[in-house]
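ok trying this again, last paste got cut off
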Amino acid sequence: MNRIRRICRCLAGLPRRASALLASAAAAPAMLATAPPLPPGWNKHPPMPRDYVFGPVVKVPGHTVVVGGMPGWQITLIAAGAALLAAVLAVIADRARAARRRQMAGVG
């Protein structure tokens, strides 16, 4: 009896799933037919000159100082500090476990 009820419950939701699929299939062409709106100010800057793009070398404005970010030595220092902290905590936990084992062995 349980197997039949399980099959009936699965089949009961089938019309809802089919109607949802049909509704989404009907709405998809209408949604894709319209062009998405362009953001405000998309044509604020004029196009670059032809020589600038197609010259002998593409000219990219260079910046002498990189704004933001973190230098490599700081990343290395943070990683070394985190590794050192993890090692110290592991040693402390190991010594605490060993002391507890010695204490439990002395009781028995």
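PB: full thing came through this time. The mean pLDDT is 76.
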